[in-house]
Amino acid sequence: MATLTEEAFVEVKGWADANDPTLFHAEKVKVKYPKTGVPSGEVEGRIAALDPQARAFTVGSWGFYVDGSTVLKRDDPDGPLTFEELRVGDRVEVKYEAVQDANGNYHALKVEAKD
């Protein structure tokens, strides 16, 4: 589960208050991925390799690692996903920040498995 932090990217479902247009009644809030202030990007493709011990994977020539702050989810059906459920060949969309580990892998902010 992701943590709500200042400047996080979120999806909110709800309705505007009829009496106060500056007030929004949130019925559901989903943290899409955190905002870190570090340069970031997005890659989509198939997982070419997985390293369960390092909690890392590659998409094409791009290497990524996940940690406790990484949001892992399925696109269809919409729902949670664990790193252990990822498989070589899965099509994923990865939002990442330009922070690298000792192996040169980028920090994955969000990994969304596509149908």
Largest sheet geometry: 5 strands, mixed, barrel
At the first level of CATH, the class of the domain at 40-113 is Mainly Beta
* CATH fold assignment of the domain at 40-113: OB fold (Dihydrolipoamide Acetyltransferase, E2P)
The CATH architecture of the domain at 40-113 is Beta Barrel
Mean pLDDT, to the nearest integer, reads 85
Poorly predicted sequence stretches spanning 5 or more consecutive residues:
none
CATH homologous superfamily name of the domain at 40-113? Copper binding periplasmic protein CusF
Distance between the termini: 21 Å
Number of strands: 9
Work out the strand percent: over 45%
H/E topology pattern = EEEEEEEEE
Structural class: mainly beta
Radius of gyration: 16 Å
Q: Helical element count?
A: 0
Strand order of the largest sheet: 3-4-5-9-8
Helix content: under 10%
Overall geometry: elongated
Description:
The protein has no helices and nine strands. The protein has 115 residues and is mainly beta. The strands form two sheets. It has a five-stranded mixed β-barrel. It has a two-stranded antiparallel sheet with strand order 1-2. A hairpin with a 4-residue loop joins strand 3 (40-51) and strand 4. It is elongated and about 55 Å long.
In short:
The protein has 115 residues and is an all-beta fold.
List the helices and strands and how they pair.
Layout: E1 9-16, E2 24-33, E3 40-51, E4 56-59, E5 62-65, E6 71-74, E7 79-80, E8 91-100, E9 106-113
Parallel strand pairs: 5-9, 6-9
Antiparallel strand pairs: 1-2, 3-4, 3-8, 4-5, 6-7, 8-9
Question: What brief labels describe this structure?
Answer:
115 residues; OB fold (Dihydrolipoamide Acetyltransferase, E2P); 5-stranded mixed beta barrel; two-stranded antiparallel ribbon; 54% strand
